[in-house]
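tool_log.txt
---
The assistant was asked to compare two proteins side by side. It first ran the structure predictor on the initial sequence, then on the second. Raw inputs and outputs are pasted verbatim so the downstream comparison step can read them without reformatting.
(1)
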Amino acid sequence: MSDIPRRKIIHVDMDAFYASVEQRDDPGLRGKPVVVAWRGARSVVCAASYEARRFGVRSAMPAVRAERLCPEAIFVPPDFVRYKAVSRQVRGIFERHTDLVEPLSLDEAYLDVTVPKQDLGSATAIASCIRDAIREETRLTASAGIAPNKFLAKIASDWNKPDGQFVLKPAMVDAFLAPLPVGKLPGVGKVMEAKLAALGIATCADLRASGIDALERHFGRWGVRLHELSRGIDDRAVQPERPTLQVSAEDTFAEDLLLDELEPHIRRMAAKAWAGYLRERQQHPDRIARMVVLKLKTADFRTLTRSLTAAEPPTSEQAFADIACALRERVVLPAQTRFRLVGAGLSGFAAPDGSRAQDDLFAT
């Protein structure tokens, strides 16, 4: 038998984080439907309080739709400086228990507490201690999932939201996952969910029954991964120093534009992304971006990305912007198609000799 202990992973997710910070700091907002977003036809929702969610308001939703769903909503412009300060405070609480903390965003993180700094008896007790400290020190609430791996811990943290936690023990995994809809699996969006439904696959039990070979024939390596997730398999380690995967900038226009009108906006976003890339290079000079990415969103909210891994990585803002603008030639849509958003980014980080600096990851 192996002497390696089974991992104990906690996924901590702050409850309606941005909106909760606003309600904490302004007593007049407590108990009311708060939407963190700028008002306007081009704005999207950054976060919604639970009072607003009851009306169907969700993050990433167009602000105008949120206003239609919840006419009584109180719109508050986001204050990321304040949110980052609270996030650092919460990170400090995590680090009392383990140095193996992998932030996913300002409001959630994975913790590996297999070998914790404090002996509290169990990962469940550690999660409770962390949530208690967050409530006492920040006056906010968090939910937690405790499981043998990252995938299961993230699923579990959503089970008793808000202000709750759920423990998924190894012996529970098979029965827990069997009825789980495939849409709950990371990376399975509406398009993939429809493709699976066409094959008669709606749950993890259906994925298992389909067999790994059949899934691989239909979806390649992604099919293999789906089969693994349906069985609760996830060997990814918690990465305290998660490398930057992409440096990018994007903007939503006041009015929709044609493809031929996008060049000045692409160059403007490239300038912002290049400045971020230079900061990244100062901290990690051994990581060079080799892929240029162009992101577009049509007026009807369809998102497109086009990318190019150049033989020689771009060495200047102008070279980067030139490639990003040229990628428009790969957009095959009717000439009258209008776009509401454009973004430019650099990714595919590698060492100077061309070897990959880290594994490629797909963030969901």
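(2)
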Amino acid sequence: MTATHCGLSLVVLRNVPLFAGLDEGELEKLSKVAMRRRVERNAFVVRSGEDTDSLYILLTGRAKVTNTDEEGREIILAWLVEGEFFGEMGLIDGSPRSANVVAVEPCELLCLSKEAFQRCMQDNFQVAQKLMHILVRRLREADRKIESLALLDVYGRVARLLLDMSEEEDGKRVVKKKISKQDMARMIGASREMVSKVVRDLELSGYITFEDDRMIIVGA
């Protein structure tokens, strides 16, 4: 591993929320055992059922977390963007991968082996504490999705999805991430045709507008 490689890994690790609070010495230890991996568009990063052997940190690109229903249809569980990580649960309980992660566009990742991650957890309580906070947050997000599927109609599910994807910008709620109607349908358990109808109705009713490929949620 080259010095440039280690240096870049150190910069990346320093900006990962999970490792916030580690001193430079601990970060340098991690950077020396971190490996780089490149994945092409539409390629699997990990597959459901595989042994969990690494923690992955997304450096560039986007990826989606997926699974399939009983009829083999794809369900999108989450989207991953630069700076986010995945694979931590299996490193804790030793279980296989519970979902697929697929590159939506060419991705570059940083990988930490199971041994390096567990050693970091044992030596640094703040990492274990941060991990618990992140797992609780993800559990709450999963509860919200289950609640949406159980209690809301398709209009409500689309509206909640758009709000969850939006960001605050100049006093407006803006959806910056590009997502197809098909992918929205796979996230909320509906047909693409129904999602298209709901988005069209929301636009005609003035609840959403489009500006330069961005969606503005009006009055949110």
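---
observation on (2): The chain has a mean pLDDT of 86. The helical segments are 3-14, 24-33, 88-93, 114-123, 125-151, 154-165, 181-188, 192-204.
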